[in-house]
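WARN retry 2 of 3 for item q-0093 after timeout on previous attempt; input resubmitted unchanged.
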Amino acid sequence: MKRIIFLLAFSTIYTLVAFGQINTFDLLRKVKNKEPLPNQKVNLDYEKIIQANKNFAQLKQFFQTTRKEQTSSSKPKTLMLPKNIISPEADLQFSDNIQIQYDEKYGTPCFIQANGNQPLIKAKYYNFTLSKTIFHFIGRFGDEFQLKEPKNELVEKEIIKTSDGGTAIRYQQVYNGIPIWGKELIANFNRFGDLEVITAKIVPTFEPSVPVNYTVSKNAAINIAVEDIRKRTLIQEIPEQLKRLVTNTEKAELWYYLENPNQKPTLIWVVEYRPNLLERYRYFIDANTGEILESYQANPSDGPAIGYGLDLFNQNRQLNVFVFNGKYLLINASKPMYNQNVQSPNGVIVIYTNNNMDLTQNSQPTIVSSNTQNFSDPVAVTLHYFLDKVYDYYYNTFSRNSIDGNKKNIVGIVHVTDQGSSMANAFWTGDFMVFGDGGNYFYPLARGLDVIAHEFTHGVVQFTVDLEYKFQSGALNEGFADWGGSMVDREDWLIGEDVVNPAYFPSGTMRDMSDPHNKAYPGDPNWLPAHMNEYQDLPLEKDNGGVHINVGIINKATYLIGSAIGKDKLEKIYYRVLDKRYLTKQANFVDFRLACERAAKELFGDNSAELQAVKNAFDAVGIGNSGGSAPNPDLPPVSGKHYILAVDANQFYLWRLEE
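OK item q-0093 returned
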């Protein structure tokens, strides 16, 4: 099939060439060497093409060496195959006009869709197994995916029912039964069983020489991680009152690790360890040498050291609370997720206080309570009231029932300190949210509705596309969180304006999605890039590769889309990207553009103003510019004499030397 694709791809530029008249290898070599092709106008002999296709194995290596790497600004490849060449399976009809975007590192597909409104594969009968459909597609275009045994290398990991009645199936790429970190494929089907979109981050099948055995044990890997963590932070026992809220304190799993195509795959232990309630570290440890290949703090955390602030609202709020054994508790059991069990309530919103202590083994977090109906803690009241609003937004707008979409308790903890001092931070821990009282730079962070929605949305991201918290995928994680903040707090495009201290934020806000520069200049901590030509290529050790910095580019695109089509339509596009799982764990900015374009097209149509607004926004910030633009004209040459200026180091004279 690859041979057919290749020849037809050139048919729009050169005249068609028949296999029977031109030696195929000679033709390919001419293309590779950029030599003129034969100027013959003939008709393709499809029978000969099919026969030639049976011998394609001879050309496979040649195509791998001539494959052109796709860049972030390149247009996707379109496969236009004759319908009589693609004979349908018994119950399936393949599209004859397929668009493929390739991963710039590995040359494998990262986003596949059909042009127009047709699906990739139309199922004649819904009872045709969805998993068989995706493998039929991969089998038909196997050489594009570069997988030798797709059914053994893609293992079904998760089946998700999407809000529009469709189905998303997530496949984990494996080798010899061992998963490859960050490499997955997600197939999206509509409610009729038609395959519509494939998103992927996969690598070509490993060579047999990759390691399959390990010498470093699981426990040894955990110990290596723990010893390194001791150098970075304080290891403290998790309080008994909160252990039930934490999913795992430590775990280690065997994976393959490949982040660079120029390196060989490494067998590793992925160790996750929670040294305390505030942090969760992820380590990638070579399973044969014990070397730490990579490590980072895996919990999304927001707010630079300089903080936020205003005052709390001095208003009385009507709260949904819970009475138990004569006490009133800040537990909201009024939502559809509540399990209707008074003795053991679940599916609730609950507020804890850490009583102005660090989250350590000595702290005593307790549910905020009162002997009467009146609560005297304005920070806890504000958080409780706002979490109610955030839940309602996701439930009423997207029918999402809690952070995980499956009635998970929503837990917030206030009055948490940092080494005994007021904490200038708020963050999602992977299980619950923590809000500091602001320190010298902030007022209590629970005052910001957008801040609370931001942290809540980090959880939504975790339970949908689970974007890895580093580099571009981490910046996307932050971008979605800021989108969530700006959707719940819909009055403006500012993030944190209700909690920042103007003495540290002269613009009056932490982030301005409409102007990521935030009235500052490069080098100022309040400045963020607004375009890819300002992108900060940072190491993992600095802000996890710039997750809180490069988010400015995504925020600008979000603002441009929203200002063009309105927030009501923007929220539909972004949530559809999450709900349909159109992004993989290691998605980058270009993947995000493709996902948003797909969602906009599905929601509003191929020729819609909404789809064009999405394209215009990403073009405006330099992400995957479709078609490119003309370069700036050269400046005119400068005329006149040349001089050299020199400074006398002893007498501090300035000398001018003529040429």
